[in-house]
Fold:
Amino acid sequence: MTTSLDGLIAAHWDALVDDIAKDAICQIPSYHQAPIRVTMERVGRWLQTCADSIRENDPHLLERYLTGVGEERKEQGYAIHELHAIVSITEQHLRDLIDRSYADPVERSAQKSLLDAVLAGARMVLSVTFLLSMADKRS
Structure:
């Protein structure tokens, strides 16, 4: 029996949080301005919520989390492309981990498809959250 995607995240937790946080700080201007401890905590919560959502097969866990985070980051001055960038950084690290962890091409493809679905949903929730907050300000 192979490891599930949420199990893979748990098994590589420390390295994923560290690598994603470091890449976010290097690549995203607003993340560069935040203390590394804050960025690592945020990355940890984001990854944990992704893993929980996958394990529980409950996309609403991720939706609720990202709606709150999206609203909070918007108020803090983050741009939507910066939030999409953290999703992209996470995606690259998890795709690389999947490539290293699943020898069977069918399993590897299935895990990447699951990851694609989860992260596409994340991007959509973040985008809608930002659009709604902009519409509220115009009203």
In short: The CA atoms of residues 99 and 108 lie 7 Å apart. The chain has one domain: 5-56+69-134.
